[in-house]
């Protein structure tokens, strides 16, 4: 029987295939699933149409991020086994059908269907789609791992740049009642299915004997933080390095996602009682602007990490990020440009943290099972996806119940984020090279690179 269209053997690149055709395939999927970052545009209409609190309207987004981490952690071995085309197709089906189920929930007044569709089913599409091109791009660009992961994940950060104004425009035309919201969600589901199919058809994996141009002449810069051995996914989670990186990612994401999920209503609240109030349309534009800096940070900062090292770049993300939060907490309400620039800086570090972490893992654990290790690490995102919005929304709701308004709704949560970033900074300082006892035997590591992770680990799932 000949292999199916989705089979890994059907997408091995022929001789002469340009590796620069692979990034557009990754971007077509990541730009689509990056719509999750524009969820805050849907929050006010949903709260009005379905009588929800800010905490309740965040549930679809929170569950989506939880499912992203869980599906990435548990689906990583299937992605390795079946290849990126299979993974992208599964992502397409889940992500698009999630919108349709959510639309049904809005139309029928069943909020649990919105949570199940967008957060549950769509969240699986987020997770599988997120990890599907990462290890593939690292294999295509072993000479530039930071840049490669920046390209792979840049699209996810930039998805809201398209989705936020597009969603706002559709809600303005279809209406912000239940029927209008449902119609907008249906259009999203269909359009993203078509767009993601481009990546499904274009993606390729390198042949086993492929090498990047000029690799023989390339000389790697020596660094004690770059491993010369390989660590399996099974052994990686037994190392303190894995859990330090887990804490770093979790807290950096918590700090960024707290602003991102609440971005539209936050800027409105901060300047509601000032001479320059922010309208809903301008707030959606702010979400798009944050998405742009999120997207740019993923490429710029991760590429910079190739020059200055992963540990140093995370010092910037966490240390400078804490200072920017302090600026927002103390003087953000006094100046809209200051508020916006600080928020943009935080979101650029947030995006950069995501894009740099696969290369950080590659430095620490080698390329052997970096995709599977990355999937397991994304459980940190699941925790942060609950923690960040919960802190910001719960504090805002409690402050509103106490009669406070404007920037006072967020002061406590902003200082909480500063504390979390400082903890993450300390965790990053504790990261050291992985002990050689966790390394795989050299003969076993090399040929297993393209095999499924379960076989290499000797684990039956």
UniProtKB/TrEMBL annotation:
GO terms for molecular function: transmembrane transporter activity. Pfam families: MFS_1 (PF07690). The keyword Transmembrane applies. It is a multi-pass membrane protein. Residues 441-461 are annotated as: Disordered. Gene3D superfamilies: MFS general substrate transporter like domains. It is found in: Cell membrane. CDD domains: MFS_OFA_like. Coiled coil: none annotated. This is Nitrate/nitrite transporter. The lineage of its organism: Bacteria, Bacillati, Actinomycetota, Actinomycetes, Pseudonocardiales.
């Amino acid at each position: 029987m000949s292999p199916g269209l989705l089979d890994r053997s059907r997408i091995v690149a022929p001789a002469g295939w340009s590796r620069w055709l692979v990034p557009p395939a990754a971007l077509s999927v990541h730009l689509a699933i990056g719509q999750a970052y524009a969820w805050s545009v849907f929050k006010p209409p949903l709260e009005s149409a379905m009588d929800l609190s800010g905490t309740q309207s965040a549930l679809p987004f929170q569950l989506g991020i939880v499912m992203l981490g869980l599906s990435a952690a548990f689906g990583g071995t299937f992605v390795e086994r079946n290849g990126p085309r299979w993974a992208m197709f599964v992502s397409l089906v889940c992500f698009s059908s999630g919108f349709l189920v959510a639309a049904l929930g809005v139309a029928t007044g069943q909020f649990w269907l919105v949570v199940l569709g967008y957060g549950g089913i769509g969240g699986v599409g987020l997770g599988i789609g997120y990890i599907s091109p990462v290890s593939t791009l690292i294999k295509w660009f072993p000479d530039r791992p930071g840049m490669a992961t920046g390209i792979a994940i840049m699209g996810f950060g930039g998805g809201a740049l398209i989705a936020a104004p597009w969603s706002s425009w559709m809600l303005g035309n279809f209406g912000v009642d239940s029927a209008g919201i449902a119609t907008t969600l249906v259009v999203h589901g269909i359009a993203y299915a078509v767009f993601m199919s481009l990546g499904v058809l274009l993606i390729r994996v390198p042949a086993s004997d492929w090498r990047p141009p000029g690799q023989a002449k390339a000389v790697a810069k020596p660094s004690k933080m770059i491993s010369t051995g390989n660590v399996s996914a099974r052994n990686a989670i037994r190392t303190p390095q894995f859990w330090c990186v887990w804490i770093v990612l979790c807290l950096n994401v918590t700090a960024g996602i707290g602003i991102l999920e609440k971005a539209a209503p936050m800027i409105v609240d901060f300047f509601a009682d000032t001479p320059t109030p922010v309208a809903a349309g301008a707030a959606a534009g702010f979400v798009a602007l944050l998405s742009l800096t999120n997207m740019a940070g993923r490429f710029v900062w991760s590429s910079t990490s190739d020059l200055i090292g992963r540990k140093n770049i995370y010092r910037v993300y966490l240390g400078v990020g804490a200072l920017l939060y302090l600026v927002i907490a103390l003087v953000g309400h006094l100046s809209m440009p200051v508020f916006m620039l600080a928020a943009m800086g935080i979101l650029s570090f947030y995006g950069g943290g995501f894009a740099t972490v696969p290369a950080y893992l590659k430095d620490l654990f080698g390329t052997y099972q970096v995709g599977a290790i990355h999937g397991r690490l994304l459980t940190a995102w699941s925790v942060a996806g609950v923690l960040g919005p919960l802190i910001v929304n719960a504090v805002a709701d409690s402050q509103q119940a106490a009669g406070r308004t404007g920037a006072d709704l967020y002061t406590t949560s902003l200082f909480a984020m500063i504390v979390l970033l400082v903890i993450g900074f300390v965790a990053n300082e504790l990261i050291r090279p992985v002990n050689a006892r966790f390394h795989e035997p050299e003969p076993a590591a090399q040929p297993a690179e393209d095999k499924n992770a379960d076989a290499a680990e000797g684990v039956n799932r």
